[in-house]
Specification:
Blueprint lengths: L21 H7 L4 H20 L4 H26 L8 H5 L3 H27 L3 H20 L2 H21 L1 H28 L13 H5 L1
Helix pairs in contact: 2-7
Length: about 220
């Protein structure tokens, strides 16, 4: 009797996030579901306490720093009596930053700054309608969200998005890519039919001609 094999579902393709710390990537992609759920739950609980207790962001930061300072002081005092190790501090606080590390950070910052300036140059040039439309839409959405949410609420929304959107994209990568390509094709078709005629009628600035020298005029 021939046995029938049931085709197994294709596993979801793993993605990589643009973060250096692999622990943060594992956290945001829910590699350890219990750990990710715990971190998101703690952040959500803290946001709920601050939101419903009518505590502003500056007051919350001050209280957190106060708790950290008093906690370190009490820990070290108790550790001195009980012969326990003091508060574990990162090596950065103990040794500071070396000159080589400062130069490395400056070089990387220069690279990102130049990329940002090049992006602003493209945007201000007005020669890329797709880029202009994307940035304008993003700024409009940020403005609407800023009117509906506080700074703390907006930060919490970004944290929730960081914990959900990458995982959703990893699970539904083919469907999301197909929807994005379809939307891009429709926008390109709409631009070619209607918006291109409007954009082409916008007068563009011509580079100024250099002034003639007085010696050339006399000739």
């Amino acid at each position: 009797m021939a046995s029938t094999t049931v085709p197994s579902a294709t596993p979801a393709r793993t993605i990589r996030l643009p973060v250096k710390d692999p622990r943060l990537e594992e956290l945001l992609l829910w590699r350890d579901q219990k750990r990710s759920a715990l971190v998101l739950g703690v952040i959500s609980a803290g946001f709920g306490v601050v939101q419903f207790a009518k505590i502003n962001a500056i007051q919350s930061a001050a209280y957190l720093l106060l708790a950290a300072v008093l906690g370190c002081f009490l820990w070290n005092q108790v550790a001195g009596f009980t012969h326990k190790p003091p508060v574990p501090l990162p090596r950065l606080l103990k040794e500071g930053v070396s000159e080589a590390q400062t130069k490395a950070v400056a070089e990387k910052a220069t690279l990102f700054i130049n990329k940002g300036l090049a992006f602003v140059n493209r945007l201000a040039g007005g020669r890329d309608p797709t880029l202009t439309f994307s940035v304008a839409t993003s700024l409009y959405l940020v403005g609407k969200l800023s009117g509906l949410l506080s700074i703390l609420g907006l930060a919490y929304a970004l944290v929730v998005a960081a914990f959900t959107l990458p995982k959703v994209y990893e699970l539904k990568q083919d469907e999301i890519d197909a929807a994005i390509n379809k939307g891009r094709t429709q926008f390109t078709s709409l631009y070619d039919k209607h918006l291109h005629k409007v954009v082409s009628k916008i007068p563009r600035s011509t580079p100024a001609r250099p002034a003639e020298s007085s010696s050339r005029k006399e000739e």
